[in-house]
Amino acid sequence: MYDFNQKPDLNITPLVDIMLVLLAILMVTAPVIEFEEPVNLPNGSRSQQIQDVKKISILISKDKIISIGKNSYELENFADSFILYSNDKNKDTPVHIRADKRLIYDDVIFVLKTVKEAGFFKVSLITDG
User: DSSP 3-state helix, strand, coil percentages of the chain (rounded to 5)?
Assistant: First the structure.
């Protein structure tokens, strides 16, 4: 007859051995595995425009002076000045922004955001090809 007071013996030694071997294999192979995602960054377009379209060119110098044609603006005053400058402009006109590569990214994005908020939707950041 079966004795209900007797507890069964569990032999977990093989389980522990297998887990230690897997842990050792993982510790040896983990430093060797390197994951690298290839990212191709754009260099800019080398094609030429077919027709000469009137455009607004914005140049941002390393001193945070913004030039539009012959007009120059400080970065802090650019938002209001550009709204006044663009009141009589067609909002379908392309806007090209060129910035010095030593500028902080936030300064370029501030200019881009200001141009977009003024109503222009054809805005491009120009890079060296």
Answer: 30, 15, 55
